[in-house]
Amino acid sequence: MNNTDFLDKLNSRYATKAMNGESVPQEKIDNILEAIRLAPTSSGLQPFEVFVITNAEIKAKIREIAWNQPQVTDCSHLLVFTAWDNYTSERINYMFDLTNEIRGFKNEGWENYRQFLLNMYPKNSAEDNFQHASKQTYIAFMSAMMQAEYEGVDCTPMEGFDADALDKILGLSEKNLRSTLLLPLGYRDTNKDWLVNLKKVRKPMNKLVNVID
Ligand SMILES: Cc1cc2nc3c(=O)[nH]c(=O)nc-3n(C[C@H](O)[C@H](O)[C@H](O)COP(=O)(O)O)c2cc1C
Questions:
Q1: Which residues of 97-130 are buried (b: 16+ CB within 10 A; e: fewer)?
Q2: How many angstroms does the Cα of residue 63 sit away from the middle of ligand 1?
Q3: Span 12-61, pLDDT tens digits
C-alpha cells in the first residue's frame, strides 16, 4: 500500500445515483460493518446501532419516506444508522465495564472519567444528548463509505429522508434509538446513473484551509 491509496479511494468514491440490484457478498458487508465498529467515538461510547436491511417490503416502505430515492430499493443492503436517543447511566456504564473486562484491569483515572461522564451526560436534555450521539454516527458513516470503496462496493450517503417516519417503520423508539443516516450499498447502474461520469467538484484549497503560522 502506498500513501496515496487512500486519496485515490477518496477520489473514486462517489454518491451513486442509480444501482443495479446486484447482491453484495456477505464478506464485503461484514468488512463494512467492521469498519463501522472500529470508528472512533467521543469517550469511546459508540452511542449508535446500525440496521442492515435486505427485506424488499421494508426497503419499499423506506423509499416512500426517503424522497422516493431509487437506491433505497435498488441497493443490495440498506444500512440505517441510528443513534441513542439519550445517554443514560446504564449505557455509559456498559462501555466502561466492557473496557475493564477487555483490558483486564481497573484504573483509577479511567474510573474517575466514568464518574465525570455519569455526572455530565444524564443531566443534559435528551435532545442535546441525541444530537451529540448523532454526530458520532457521521464518523462511522465515513468509515463505512471508505471500506465500501476498498471493497469495490458503491454507496450513497443519505440524509434525504423523514427520520420520524423511519423511526416508526423500524420501531426505533421502543429501542431508545433515533435514525440519523441511510447508506444503500450495491453496484452502480452505469446506464441510469447521471453522476457516474461527471467530474468530482471540490472547492480549491485556498477556500478551505487557513494557515496561521
Ligand atoms: C450527510 C450526507 C447526506 C447526503 N444525502 C444525500 C441524499 O439524500 N441523496 C443523495 O443522492 N445524495 C446525498 N448526499 C450526497 C452528496 O450530495 C454528495 O456526497 C456530494 O454532492 C459530493 O459528491 P460525491 O459524494 O459524489 O463526491 C449526501 C451526502 C452526505 C455526506
A1: eeeeeeeeeeeeeeeeebeebbeebbeeeeeebb
A2: 16
A3: 999 999 999 999 999 999 999 999 999 999 999 999 999 999 999 999 99
